[in-house]
Write a structure and sequence with these properties.
Length: about 240
């Protein structure tokens, strides 16, 4: 059911947690299904009880499992899983259809990012505006040279800076989510040189001029399905 973990730079309990999590996230282990007993899991993974218990603590904190005395460890219902956890997002990559997975992420961005851009236009500090200026220049250069690696790095930082510029601490975690899967998203959307530089420049200019409505509008344009190469992705 599981493979033994290797002694590597990644901590053993994280390797164990990742294996279990991916089987849960993929549906191979279903909600409400009970995991093997502790002794059997230790033997399967080739780890100590201490390492296994650390891994189950990690999985419990992410809402995937719960352990009860005399009952054992059971997978929780999907509604309890912490899908916004950056580590969980990292583990889920490659399990679902990539385009459907990224399309759902686009839906999240549509719900929150236009307002983040509007808030950034109102509240970004001088230093944050300077940072966006540098990143925008780097993005323009990368687009002109079709340098996908530099585009991905700077586009990611540009959007992360927007979230940090909202003056609202509840937006900050979304910047962390971007760190986890934004590179995969950008690689997909920019394929073939589709950088949407005019929309990015519109967001940047609006934030620099303090025009919240325009910043929101340009962000909505940027996040259109066809701009992000999701026009043919099923919604279900």
């Amino acid at each position: 059911m599981f493979i033994q973990v290797e002694d590597s730079s990644r901590r053993v309990h994280v390797q164990v947690a990742r294996q279990i999590a991916r089987k849960i996230l993929s549906g191979e282990i279903e909600p409400l299904q009970r995991l093997p007993c502790e002794m059997d899991l230790c033997e399967m993974f080739g780890v100590s009880r201490t390492a296994l218990r650390e891994s189950t603590k990690l999985l419990s904190a992410k809402g995937l499992i719960e352990s009860r005395p005399k009952v054992g460890t059971t997978v929780r219902a999907r509604a309890n899983w912490h899908f916004l956890d950056p580590q969980l997002l990292d583990w889920i990559q490659g399990l679902e259809n990539t385009e459907v997975f990224l399309s759902k992420f686009l839906g999240l961005r549509k719900a929150i990012e236009p307002e983040a851009c509007a808030l950034a236009a109102s509240y970004a500090t001088i230093e944050q505006r300077k940072q966006m200026s540098v990143l925008m220049q780097n993005m323009i250069k990368a687009a002109e040279e079709f340098d996908y690696e530099q585009w991905t790095i700077n586009d990611h930082l540009f959007h992360q800076t927007i979230y940090l510029s909202t003056d609202n601490q509840f937006y900050i975690p979304f910047g962390n989510i971007l760190t986890t899967i934004f590179k995969l998203f950008i690689d997909h959307s920019a394929e073939g040189g589709r950088f949407c530089i005019n929309e990015h420049k519109g967001i940047y200019d609006s934030i620099m001029s303090g025009d919240a409505d325009q910043a929101r509008s340009y962000c909505q344009e940027l996040l259109r399905d066809d701009n992000q190469r999701f026009s043919e992705v099923p919604t279900a």
